[in-house]
Design brief:
Radius of gyration: 40 Å
Structural class: mainly alpha
Order of helices and strands: HHHHHHHHHHHHHHHHHHHHHHHHHHHEHH
Shape: elongated
Helix content: 55-70%
Number of strands: 1
Oligomer: single chain
Strand content: under 5%
Length: 674
């Protein structure tokens, strides 16, 4: 969720504090270093992709081993094959996890090797080992980073190695100088970086003083150097123009730039390595707060070796334990790797359990109950909907029903009303499994009436209206829709009973007559009845069924409902009332035998605009109304309990107004039926 905190920012801040507190190991007592190392180990087990955590840990580890004089600590030995085995394992793990953005780790290793390697006793073999190490680090890490300012110093440190080459004759001197020359040329022509020109100037000066034959080679190399320098200038200009952008835009534009220039590299592998470096570079600053950067990292990671995509997805949930996106990708990767075996299913269940626990941790779920647009409510609801989906996909209907049971237990325990889309989603999966599961869906949705209709009629109606549209649009049979609507009416009746009985003294029942429900509340109830009536008439060629029984039922069950409100309920599907002028729909000549309507009309006369009466002869006796309006106005039953609203004169007046309106709408053919 873009509006919901899915990260573990508290842990990030703790890591930063630990990193800042261990900048200088010499200021930390040896006894305390042991405790810190144990804490580092625990953190790196959960957050192994954090570069600065590895930096501080390795520095502290080396310092502790070198300065701890206890008998249990094995002294550090010289590099080559005898480097401390535990340290070597940690270095290998760090550089593998953080590649190719791991120069800081390599730098710690190099510094340690240069201090502990005795080139005098080790001779050319030890020197050759270090030369190979320098080249490997350059190729795999530093050469890929145009942002670094360490290139020149790195090359100078490399050149210093050859001071340990004890030459005994001129032939060895020439060999040493040619070796330096070969590697400097490689450093100059293999990549572009900030201090490239500085390295080139140093090299020309050095070569002029060390074997004149190098001048010819410099002239040969110069075009390649110029090409590299031009590429750096081009890249620097591009990158400086990104200064006003946020990190994500910088990342995307830099990746686009690399793709655009990938033909400039000698091999596709170089382009791919640079692409991964850029992602890793931005990843280090966003790994605790961006699902997107994790997606990029996983997508561009190798699937070979121990640290594959499955490993990255697993670790991502430590960094971002509230990320549903990463949780789903991890569960699907598990299934792809291991199949639908029980261990996989158990791990997927654990993923959702952790997502739920972490998302609700330290959150006020009760406070967002029934607030369906709240980010926390939305996040929790989406987690449960995805849990239903994954359990259905992996375990079938048995898994679906178990997941739904877990959801119901959760909202009961937490006393939180989450978005009722979960009930609809559950029904969708039930129907996908078997279309005959409609009775099950009716039971599920009825459970929702109990859950979402606890607090108010408005909440009950909101839930019912949404789910009623769902069952109609999903093709439920009339039998099942009717059964569901009957359940709603029972809940509604119970609500109305409680509402009228619990009102204040002025709103209690007087005799047999109930007080009226507020008009807005009556309107809200009729909005739920509307799709049911539309559905019923749609099954019968537009004919309204059971009008009399529905009228009697609503009159008795909804205190204060008016005849006009009932009429508007039946006309709503054909929008017949919209054809009337506004004031005409509000002011209707009252019938003498309709006291309720007379009272309503008298109350409205003070504010309504008088209705214009038609001129004599304006109505053609053969005018025929449109079929829908004709059904509304004239096909109402003549039962004693439902008296017609209009006499013949009023109908003729209405027809005249309709004639004028429809004439203005360019409708030509219509007549009036007696």
């Amino acid at each position: 969720m873009s509006f919901y905190d899915v990260s573990e920012l508290g842990i990030r801040d703790q890591i930063f504090q630990l990193v800042n507190a261990t900048v200088d190991p010499s200021t930390i007592p040896i006894t305390q270093q042991k405790e810190l190392l144990a804490k580092f180990d625990a953190l790196l087990n959960k957050y192994p992709l954090t570069l600065n955590l590895w930096e501080r840990y390795l520095n502290l580890y080396i310092y502790n081993v070198q300065h701890d004089n206890s008998e249990n600590v094995k002294s550090m030995t010289e590099f080559s094959g005898d480097i401390d085995e535990a340290l070597n394992e940690k270095f290998n793990k760090a550089v593998q996890l953080l590649k190719p953005n791991n120069f800081q780790i390599y730098e710690i290793l190099l510094t340690h090797q240069l201090k502990t390697n005795n080139f005098v006793t080790g001779g050319k073999q030890a020197l050759q080992g270090m030369v190979e190490q320098f080249i490997k680090i350059w190729d795999k890490s530093l050469s890929l980073n145009p942002l670094s300012t360490a290139h020149f110093q790195y090359i100078m440190t490399f050149v210093d190695l050859f001071q340990h080459w004890q030459v005994v004759n001129n032939d060895e001197l020439i060999l040493r100088n040619n070796t330096i020359r070969k590697h400097i040329i490689y450093f100059v022509t293999s990549s572009f970086y900030k201090d490239l020109e500085k390295v080139w100037k140093w090299f020309i000066n050095w070569d002029a003083n060390n074997a004149g034959s190098g001048e010819y080679k410099i002239n040969q190399v110069s075009p390649t150097y110029m090409k590299m320098r031009s590429k750096y200038i081009q890249w620097e200009s591009f990158y400086n123009n990104l200064s006003s952008l946020d990190d994500y835009e910088k990342l995307l534009q830099w990746l686009d730039w690399e793709t655009l220039h990938k033909q400039d590299y000698e091999s596709l592998k170089t382009y791919q390595s640079r692409y991964k470096f850029i992602i890793q570079h931005f990843f280090q600053s966003k790994q605790f707060e961006s699902e997107y950067i994790w997606d990029l990292l996983v997508h561009n990671s190798s699937n070979s070796g121990e640290y594959n995509q499955l490993f990255l997805l697993q670790k991502s949930l430590h960094y971002m334990p509230r990320s549903l996106n990463l949780g789903l990708k991890y569960s699907q990767a598990l299934e792809l790797k291991q199949g639908k075996q029980q261990s996989t299913l158990d791990l997927v269940d654990e993923v959702f359990k952790n997502l739920i626990q972490k998302t609700k941790q330290n959150q006020d779920l009760i406070g967002v109950s029934n607030k369906f647009e709240d980010p926390l409510n939305l996040q929790m609801s989406i987690i449960f909907k995805k849990m239903l989906q994954e359990n259905t996909r992996l375990k079938g209907v048995k898994g679906l029903r178990q997941a739904f049971k877990n959801f119901r237990e959760f909202i009961k325990t937490e006393k939180c009303v989450l978005n009722y889309d979960i009930f609809i989603t559950n029904c969708k999966y039930e129907l996908q499994v078997d279309i005959k599961n409609m009775p099950v869906c009716v039971k599920i949705l009825t459970l929702g009436l109990n859950q979402y209709g606890k607090e108010s009629i408005i909440d009950l109606n909101r839930y019912m209206l949404t789910t009623l549209h769902f069952v109609i649009e999903s093709g439920f049979t009339r039998e099942h829709i009717k059964a569901y609507f009957e359940s709603y009416k029972k809940h509604l009746a119970s609500f109305i009973k409680d509402l009228t009985q619990n009102n204040s003294a002025g709103n209690v029942q007087t005799g047999e007559e109930m007080v009226s429900l507020p008009k807005e509340l009556r309107k809200n109830i009729l909005q739920v009845y509307n799709p049911w009536i539309v559905y019923e008439s749609g099954l019968n060629m537009g004919k309204y069924l059971n009008v009399e029984s529905t009228y009697n039922e609503l009159s008795k069950s909804i205190p204060g409902i008016t005849t006009l409100e009932l009429w508007e309920l039946y006309t709503s599907q054909n929008s017949a009332s919209e054809l009337l002028p506004k004031q005409a729909s509000e002011v209707i000549a009252p019938r003498a035998d309709n006291k309720e309507l007379t009272k309503l009309t008298q109350n409205n006369l003070n504010t309504a605009v008088p209705m214009t009466l038609p001129e004599a002869g304006a109505v053609n006796e053969h005018v025929e109304l449109p079929l829908e309006l004709f059904e509304v106005l004239l096909n109402l039953p003549n039962a004693e309990s439902f008296k017609p609203l209009f006499n013949n004169d009023q109908l003729q007046s209405l027809a005249s107004d309709l004639f004028n309106i429809m004439r203005d709408m360019n409708v030509e053919n219509f007549t009036f039926k007696e």
